[in-house]
Write a structure and sequence with these properties.
25% helix, Lipocalin, alpha+beta, nine-stranded antiparallel beta sheet, 23% strand, single chain
């Protein structure tokens, strides 16, 4: 019995020291990131709704102006131009069967920067080491780490990418990489590759306005980097509501039924009026 008790005690002590060593190693690994953490230089928190460009309408629009505020076409490579030609004919047309082939109608994540282009508000929350974006659209959560950590290159291709950030004065500079190539830049089908690199400069331009400057770099899809700016308006009295894409997935079936051509009814033979 005594020998058994000693063995149990030694096993417990060994477990204790191994656990302490593992904890110390984890703390040591986290220290470099925490040591670089700085207090945010500006308050970006609040609920924000994107303002559309003046004069833009949802139908009959130049999609690049409505979505990205770009007056001219993007500088696409031959690979991107070929994909865009196919996508644009599908997504910008009037045939519901092709318009609804956009991946977002099947509840796939929209990616960045397209997540900003939907008509739903977002909330920004700042905590030590992170700026968190809570999107009403399908309740997506995006984390921009500001604690000094590098990009996590072990995650593999991601729908929303891997985001880290730093403060430059009153501006949060967010750097996002590690995208997959399954999402689109905008609603009319501008593509991107897995080499997509997005840099955002996020700042308040006045107490009620937020500006997000976006620079897109993707050597596989675009011959040179291009930039745009999106403006958001504060909605202090709003709240983030529940919007779940899966609950709306039956919309495609409903649309197919509502736009289907009615079946042709069989014609009944005409009846002759009885002779009077």
């Amino acid at each position: 019995m005594l020998k058994s008790s000693k063995s149990l005690l030694l096993a417990m002590l060994a477990f204790f020291f191994v656990s302490c060593a593992a904890f110390a190693q984890t703390a040591a690994e986290a220290a470099p990131a925490n040591s670089q953490m700085t207090a945010p230089a500006a308050d970006l928190s609040g609920i924000w709704m994107r303002l559309r460009d003046k004069g833009a309408t949802a139908r009959g629009y130049p999609g690049i102006i409505l979505d990205l505020g770009q007056p001219t076409e993007l500088p696409m490579t031959l690979w991107a131009a070929t994909k865009y030609k196919v996508n644009s004919a599908m997504y910008h047309g009037d045939d519901p069967d092709t318009v609804l082939s956009d991946p977002v109608f099947s509840c796939y994540p929209p990616g960045v920067p397209r997540i900003y282009l939907f008509g739903f508000p977002m909330q920004i929350v700042q905590i030590p080491g992170q700026v968190i974006m809570l999107f009403e659209y399908d309740h997506f959560v995006r984390r921009i780490y500001t604690d000094g950590r590098p990009h996590d290159m072990n995650q593999g291709p991601l729908w929303m990418g891997d985001s880290i950030g730093k403060w430059e004065g009153d501006t949060l500079v967010a750097d996002t990489v590690s995208f997959n190539d399954k999402s689109l830049i905008d609603r009319v089908g501008h593509p991107h590759s897995d080499a997509l690199h997005v840099v955002e400069r996020i700042r308040r331009i006045d107490p009620n306005s937020l500006e997000i400057g976006i620079t897109v770099e993707d050597p596989k899809a675009y011959t040179q980097p291009w930039s745009t700016k999106l403006i958001f308006e504060s909605k202090a009295d709003w709240k983030i509501m529940e919007q779940i894409c899966e609950d709306n997935a039956s919309f495609i079936d409903f649309n197919n039924k509502s736009t289907a051509k009615p079946a042709t009814a069989a014609k009944k033979p005409a009846t002759k009026n009885p002779a009077k």
